[in-house]
């Protein structure tokens, strides 16, 4: 298919701005198919135009996925979708350049808006495309004024407005989350040792330069562990994960140390444990978010017969086993 460079770049820019028609997207797709084995394919494009081409390919793959039978269970090693070969081809062609070089860093050439929350408030944000974002406490998001690309540091729950021809792309930690229209939760606080993506409805693709995308559907979760470079998937009740948007804290079979991490953010405190067995105790509990911190900590300690003490003059608490000296 013949297409001059000026026309192609014009179509890619329209796609980035969210103004490309279905016919124009199809025009780019046909052009790419005719040259997809050319390793110099994207050398003429800007980084932003490379990103547009990558997103357009994802859109084509996603449509193929929608037409196929969904798998009973999604796992990293057993993902059944047509993206693997296409993504490998795209990497070889160089169209993943921007994703590989800027996994977590916003493109400074884009016009963006930055919003953040403190340790005492959750914020509901209406995004330019009509999507909604609930930004959890102590979180930050940066998003493009035009197009559908965001960078998240912290936790957010998204309700993505369907927009034919324009996927919704979120960068969180070392992961890229590509969406067509869905609701999902991302937990990607910088100090944490993992990034978690939980899908409430619809379908998303989660991956990075080391891992081919894994598809998630409702009540499925992907956990990325940077230290081990592992991407794991499992089934989960998504409503429990996003309960914070409704003013609730729900923990199911969670380690005390992981619960403490969330409590520290919500109540602006520090929690320490007298021993590793205490920190690794598995708990299930549900609280309203407005319950005072000491009440929450006390009820959690009662489950296993633990106790706690507050360090004098500090918002710091030590959890220890009753009857044993607290150090």
Automatic annotation (TrEMBL):
Q: Which UniProt keywords apply?
A: Membrane, Transmembrane, Transmembrane helix
Q: This protein is called what?
A: Ferric-dicitrate binding protein FerR, regulates iron transport through sigma-19
TM segments? 81-99
> Pfam families, per this entry?
FecR, FecR_C
Q: Where is the FecR protein domain?
A: 116-204
Claim: Transmembrane is one of the keywords in the record: yes
Domain of life, per UniProt, equals: Bacteria
**Organism whose genome encodes this protein:** Chitinophaga arvensicola
Q: Where is the Protein FecR C-terminal domain?
A: 249-311
Q: Name one GO molecular function term.
A: sigma factor antagonist activity
Q: Does the keyword Acyltransferase apply?
A: no
